[in-house]
Design a protein that fits this description.
It contains 15 helices and no strands. It is mainly alpha-helical. It has a domain of about 90 residues: Serine Threonine Protein Phosphatase 5, Tetratricopeptide repeat. It starts with 7 loop residues before the first helix and ends with a helix.
Amino acid sequence: MIKTKNLFSLVLFWMALGLSPFALGQTPRIQWEKANKSCFDFLNNGDLNSARGVCSEAVRAAETIKGDLNPLAQSLSNLGTLLSRLGEYSLAETAYARSLKFAEQAAGKDSTMAALSAGALGLLYVETAKLDLAEPLLKRALATDEKIFGPNSEYVAVDLNNLGLLRIKQRRFSDAEVFLKRSLSITEKLHGKNKIDSTEAMNNLGTVYLEQGKNQEAEFILQRVLNIREASLPALHPDIAESLNNLGMAMKAQGKFKGAEAAYQRCLLIVESVMGPNHPRAATVILNLAEVVGAQGRNQEAEALISKGKAILKLER
């Protein structure tokens, strides 16, 4: 239900820090920029399998650039995003922690780069239920970005969304709703309504409504998120899978089992195609699917799905 926040639009800030392919004519920098752009593009399009090689290549190229740690901090953050999406959380934590270290060395602890890295690492801790570690990092990112950019910037909107996710994990739903509505208000003012930039906060707000039992409100906003993402992203993008899973949950909560089943089936197709059939997120969707299949009286089919989902989870131990 909760996913690691996509930081790709914010990484563009780093790409604007004088990192032109024409700068100084440095071959290592040019090699890094080519690999980093490919990494960025694959991640942005949800092509995780293609991203792995070039994201690692970007890190290796950045390590050869002398006198500038900015590229290395950025590439490690991208690699952390990839690994998190693949469910390789321990490796993602290492990449994000290294990104934060080099961002602080490059620009200082109170810099935007360090705030971005701190936010990414904090959000990974939310994803992995290390909530005590997450909170100070996420609050630090918000304080830094508000000081540098003011209260209504895109950076602040991302920080508020991340804190909303933390509050969901802490089951502090009223607090989460406040953070997420403020984040959504900022992004809609910056980019307009029904734009892809607003779907993170909307999706998470739908999660809050589900947890509060406001199932009709949840279905409405989650359907809106799905419509925007389908119009803006490739058909097999992981964000579309997330929307389908969450929409299925809203429908299931209202007894709309056929609609929920269709949503889960589409979600599973994307997850298995992009992340592989043995990914833990595939197991989650399979178990959700089993529940709505069983609710329609197809007990043998449901039992087979439960066995399949549990078998995948055992592989991850």
